[in-house]
Amino acid sequence: MEIIKKKYDSCFVAILFFLCTIFRIKMFEGTVAYLIGIFFFVFYFCFSMNDKRMFNDRKLLIPYFLFALILMITLIMGNDRFNSCVQLFYLFICYLAGNSFSWKEEELKSNLFFIRNFVLVSAIYGIYEHSIKYNIFAYNYTLMSGNLARYYWQFSQNNYRVASFFLHPIIFGIVLLLAFWITWFSREKKIMKIVINTLFFVNIIWTMSRSIWLGFLASFIFYLIYYVNTKKNFRTFFISLKQVIWTIVLGFLTIVVIFTLLHLYAATVIERFSDVGTDNSYLQRVGTAQYFMDYFLNIKNFFLTVLGHGQNSANKFMLTLHVVADNFSTTDNQYLSNIYNYGLFVNVVVTYQVILAFLNSSKRSNFYRFICVIMFGVLIAMYFFEILDFITLNWLFIFLLGYLLSSKKKVIN
Questions:
Q1: How wide is the angle at C-alpha 20 spanned by C-alphas 100 and 47, nearest 5°?
Q2: Is the distance from CB of 129 to CB of 162 less than 8 angstroms?
Q3: What is the model's pTM?
């Protein structure tokens, strides 16, 4: 029984990631999918109750309080209350799973490596997709949803964007960013790291997603400043002269590969950034941000801005708002949606906790700092899309955030 538990702990997160990817491909991403997710977590709680410690810190009162506040606001002021509350409870239980359990680092590393391998397969398929410029999964998804025009708009032959199994270039970009850093921090051979990360980097470029490019660049800068320059980390990372030499060689080869790829795709990158003034997605985002900022700064909306409107309120409001496109159900900015949905009070508390967790991670194990690098890139990219709208990733982001915010003490290894 103990062996079964260890094996289940080592693949639990990876299994849920795979299931959520399949759910989205099969358009099974509504309330029923969230209920299945809740059942999946509850089953895991019961299965592992003997060797997982729940409610192990008084600081858990903070997320409980925030969850109760958002739930109350959703019930009082929100629309489609049942579905919204199910999704809200699902996200909260994902946070609880990452925050309240005493996860062993090796368990999470094993889970993340399984996810990396799945993304590696999707990146290989991305090469094939880029060569034929056709995504059968996205085509079937838009066809079944009665929105085939969106496929031809998003996967234009003149400006094709690779999405692989994840149906959306930005979501594919986020999992590529995750997989890139998992590989970077893995214990694989150096040459294997270069080959695999080159494949991920090429696919990141092929997503044609400016938000992912910026998120990737931000995570790399954050890595250089936050991770490498941590003095205590230097004492553990550079154990021997051989490792120092290998690190320099790996860094040099990585820079050469990156600059070679940038040279090959420089025109693509420059063209993608040069059309921001006329690009519809850019105009939609800017117009939406201007409208919401005007709304937040209006003194008449002070009470609602502080307390929020409830889960999924921003998406439902966007359906009534014309900026550039009609029936556009997202702000494409997670921070605007968070303020509108949950209010300033909740967001200030969460922001404070995230900043505190980042600062405290320098005193914890290397694995915490690795999670920080990933989360920083995602937090930057979230300014340009809404991660909580995608069942493939919303739970994983909340789970890792919960783990990052956990109060369990970790010594530097």
A1: 40
A2: yes
A3: 0.80
